[in-house]
Amino acid sequence: MDGYWAAPPVSRTLTALTAVTSCLVYGGLLDPYRIIFYLPSIFKFPLPEIWRFFSCFWLTGPQLSILFDTYFLWTYSSALEKGSGRFSHPGDFFVYIIFLGLVIVATAGGILGGMVFTQALILGIAYTYAQDNKGKKATFFIISFNVMWLPWAMLLMTFVMAGTNSAMNPATGIVAARLCVFRPRLWPEFGGGKNYIFTPNIVQRWFGGDRPNIQGRGYGTAYRQAAPAPGRGTSSGFGFASAWGTRGQGRRLGGD
User: Fold this and answer.
1) Which candidate among 25, 105, 110, 245 keeps its CA 20 to 30 Å from the CA of 14?
2) Global pTM?
3) What integer is the mean pLDDT of 57-80?
């Protein structure tokens, strides 16, 4: 339990929900039709089943897929949440997961008619992980290759095992992850547009953004200041702020 609570909060919660839900479903203790994405039930009157927006990301495939899907989800999500420079503010990774989920639901659910999106979410996370670790090596089962090919290797495995129709649903995760790069960074910097993907102050406070982060080290104690509220020259959008965005107003030395 100490190891679990020491893990990144979003990754450990998402992985635990996925593992428990999958075990309950395949153990015959939970009806899978109560958690899949199904619009008539979500907007059912007078008792809408809103939880389906979230629970459709918590069900893996059967048998060995429970082990492999949970392992991939834990490995790549925890690596991003702990070590990615994209998520420099408290709560950035949580907003990233929410954005991935919204795009996947709109594409895999609204367009393709899918009902379970766990593998799409894993592929989206794996794509972002690959972008953060360009040039490194990844091992997929017993094969080593450039990490940039990791999401495509996972998609190919799904295609080989389940066919074209089953691979189209997970592929929407790569689309969602690509939009997570395009909207916060490429579109504002090169397209002149506005970044609408940012971490609200209330979400930053949920993850401790309003209090210093104290880290014990062998040579002393380190304190990280609380994240400043977004304003002029600052950004809380997935850590994509320009290096010049946090400078001052550029007053000339020796002037008035």
Assistant:
1) 110
2) 0.79
3) 92
- Sign, CA dihedral 181-183-188-194, equals negative
Residue 134 to residues 2, 50, 131, 145, 176, Cα–Cα distance (Å): 32, 38, 6, 11, 19
Q: Is residue 200 part of a domain?
A: no
- For residue 224, being part of any structural domain is answered with no
Long-range contacts of 223-231 (CB under 8 A, 24+ apart): 227/89, 227/90, 229/201, 230/198, 230/201
Q: Which amino acid is at 210?
A: D
Closest by CA to 114, choosing from 29, 27, 176, 47, is 176
* Domain limits for position 29: 2-190
* Residue 248 or residue 59, greater confidence: 59
CATH number of the domain residue 59 falls in: 1.20.1540.10
